[in-house]
Amino acid sequence: MAKSKTAKKSTDKFDWKKISELILQSRAMDEKEESELVPQKEVLYQFSARGHELGQVLLGSLLTHKHDAASAYYRSRPLLLSLGLDLEDAMAAPMGKSGGYSDGRDIGVVCNRPDADGPKVLPMAGDVGSQYTPAIGWAQGIEYRRKVLKEKEYDKAISVILGGDGSVATNGFWSALTIATTQNLPVLFYIEDNGYGISVDSEFQTPGGVITNNLRSFSNLRIFDGDGTLPEEAAGLMDEAVNYVRDRKGPAMIRLTVPRLNGHSYQDNQAYKDEKLIQKEKKNDPLIKLEKFMVPDHITKRTWNNWEKKAKEAIEEAAGNALARPQPDKGNTEKFAFDEGELPGIGGLAVEGHEFPESSEEPNPEKQRINIVEAIRRTLKYELETNEKLLVFGEDVGKKGGVHAATMDLQSNFGEDRVFDTSLSEEGIIGRAVGMAYSGLMPVAEIQFRKYADPATEQLNNCGTVRWRTANRFAAPIVVRMPGGFAKCGDPWHSMSNEVFFAHAIGWQVAMPSNAQDAVGLLRSAMRSNNPTMFFEHRNLLDAKYARKPYPGDQYVIPFGKANFLQEGEEITIVTWGAMCERSETAVNNLGVSADIIDLRTLMPWDKDTVISSVQKTNRCLVVHEDNQTAGFGSEIVSAIMKEAFEYLDAPVQRITMPDIPVPYNVGLMESVLPNEEKIAAGIRDIIAF
Questions:
Q1: Which of 241, 279, 447, 479 is most buried, with most CB under 10 Å away?
Q2: Topology of the domain covering 3-323
Q3: How confident is the model over 522-561, as pLDDT tens digits?
Q4: CA separation, residue 198 to residues 47, 212, 260, 435 (Å)
Q5: What is the dihedral of CA 464, 470, 471, 472, to 10 degrees?
């Protein structure tokens, strides 16, 4: 901390005319929305930036590197203006008009900027604290491309995170702080401290109310503290903080105190503040202090008034043009939940023209059978060898080789830059993977067990929706490897299946291989896809005799949405996946019935055509899955059959599933509730006898 020293630092490097114009434009936008557009219901959600403008515009003026990126939040519109956000787009977005950074799909101040030739603004989110870990991934992407890929154009690039004082209580903040400091990443945390998280003051967010006071013992973190309403002090501190990170001295945090001159949102009347505090904050307006700084030492009062007038005129014109824009095309509303062949502005390998080795849907099997663990390891190894932008990471994937040994020896073969351990934070694992994908890498992240993904739900959901939310301006193709399901025993923590959660998550592909050959083909397809993929590795199949198949070759891929016939027959269709494939086959063989047994292999997308065609042939269907029954994915299959093949049915479609309870630890209890051969066989008999 060097407050007095930096406060005296020369501010000549800043274009104060431009800074003043941008702040005046931002203020005029807020006034236009608050006084007219919101009352007239032209703007339905409004988040004022009043009081926050100075620090953001100063920061934006210092983000000059092509590969700089800022990860901000819903009060960060002044930053976007400083980086070149078009005024009409800025006004049109809160109106939900066409164009702009979401084409009417997202709240207007949830911005993004995918400028290929200038600083980027990573897609914002409406949830507090979720902006932190993707920015860490971007920073790690910078360093990987700079150090490992030797791309000199990434020298001096930095990642910046903007957050309010309320956000310092979130998992994302602490995870990002841990990763940035332990990995010495080029990250600047900018905390705008206005003293409140909606109506809750800072004392409830962090002990003592000042987050930087609590972080001075953090190794490898430089702290800057100051007043975000004083132009010279804020400029000096911001300049020093940015240069500190840009010069690779380590991560830094700058905390500037600012007033929040309006409520959290338009609807917030700030009744929780007493009148004295409100008046004190108004007197602390950075715009008032900026005017005093500029007049008369730099410009005349008349010039200032002229700037103010021009800003209001510019916003009036922009608002008028925005109001005249057409509504978004309703015919496009469903576009971009998944890749549709149109490259996004930012994110993934395809944007950079990456070319993969030759692939084939025809297997070229070796003689020896291998288990799923070995299949995954060999597939990862080949893709690491042939794709220098692929990285594998998670808890214990390095020297230990993963808790299930799927990454054994990969770190010794490819080094710690490409295969590395992470801190124990699933939020951090997934969030940083998203940021890496934005930076043009292919992250393959491991979550050790399905249940452990719960802390990362926010990042998983945001990753899946980002292409849609930004109207294909951003995408985050990542692969998440996730073991789960029962094994030698059960329990509520390691044995959860719950695949329907990810099938329901927007924008995610979901793969559930039942054998080693399919594991190879689906994992390779996932690592070459333009969509994020959840790759489910069933614990009971990892070393199961049933799942062992010959390695199908380094070119083998399986398209998502293409089911596999385990057996073909005439009397009944059985639709299943994962560990239930073996149990379904055993039940059919023990009964001696003639059945189509379909292994879906992927649930999103799922091969509806194959299922419907089979039901039209057999006239009967049983769906078997390990997940709980209520709202399980089997319900989706049954619904499709009832709609598209009802007239072919000779019996009601039935399901064999887990009951709506967690998996028990005791083996006898576990087997009593899991779908097993006897239950499946009984279901088959009932349907055939109907």
A1: 479
A2: Rossmann fold (3.40.50)
A3: 999 999 999 999 999 999 999 999 999 999 999 999 999 9
A4: 11, 20, 10, 28
A5: -70
Cβ(77)–Cβ(45) below 8 Å: no
Give the model confidence (pLDDT) of 618-664 as tens digits. Answer: 999 999 999 999 999 999 999 999 999 999 999 999 999 999 999 99
User: Tell me: the pLDDT tens digits for 245-297?
Assistant: 999 999 999 999 999 888 777 777 888 888 888 888 889 999 999 999 999 99
Q: Which residues of 394-430 are buried (b: 16+ CB within 10 A; e: fewer)?
A: bbbbbeebbbbebbbebbeebeeebbbebeebbbbbb
Alpha carbon of 560 to those of 17, 91, 477, 512, 614: distances in Å? Answer: 55, 40, 15, 11, 19
Token look-up 């009944």 returns 572
In sequence order, which residues have a C-beta less than 8 Å from that of residue 35 and are 6 or more positions away?
none
DSSP-assigned beta bridge partners for residue 511: 535, 602
CA atoms within 13 Å, Cβ hemisphere of 383? 31
- For 564-689, CATH number? 3.40.50.920
Q: Distance between CA 394 and CA 403 in Å, rounded?
A: 10
- The percentage of residues in the chain with a pLDDT greater than 70, rounded to a whole number, is 99
State residue 470 phi and psi, 5-degree precision. -100, 10
What pLDDT is stored for residue 609 in this prediction? Answer: 98
* Residue range(s) occupied by CATH 3.40.50.970 in the chain: 3-323, 350-550
Q: How far is CA 479 from CA 221, 411, 443, 645, in A?
A: 31, 18, 6, 34
Q: What does the buried/exposed string (b/e) look like for 584-609 if buried means 16 or more CB atoms within 10 Å of the residue's CB?
A: bbebbeebebebbbbbbbbbbbbbbe
Distance separating alpha carbons of residues 141 and 352, to the nearest angstrom: 14
Residue of 337, 441, 435 whose CA lies nearest to 391:
441
Model confidence pLDDT, tens digit, residues 60-109 = 999 999 999 999 999 999 999 999 999 999 999 999 999 888 999 999 88
**Is 264 a residue of the active site?**
no
SS3 of residue 116 by DSSP:
coil
What are 412-415's contacts with CB under 8 Å, separation 24+? Answer: 413/381, 413/384, 414/384
Q: How many CB atoms within 10 Å of residue 196?
A: 22
Q: How far apart, in whole angstroms, are the C-alpha atoms of residue 539 and residue 487?
A: 5
Q: Which two tokens stand for residue 246?
A: 């840009």
Indicate the DSSP class of residue 363: -
Residue tagged active-site, from 52, 404, 494, 538: 494
Please name the residue ranges forming H helices in 479-579: 499-504, 516-527
**What is the C-alpha to C-alpha distance for residues 686 and 690, in angstroms, rounded to an integer?**
6
pLDDT band at residue 410 under the 50/70/90 scheme: very high
Please provide the CATH number assigned to the domain covering 350-550.
3.40.50.970
Shortest CA distance to 614 belongs to which of 547, 566, 678, 582? 566
| C-alpha dist (Å) from residue 541 to 520, 545, 548, 583, 590 | 14, 8, 9, 12, 21
| Cα gap 99→327, rounded to integer Å | 9
Residue where the block lists tokens 């770190």: 411
In terms of Cα–Cα distance, which of 235, 237, 236, 230 is closest to 285? 230
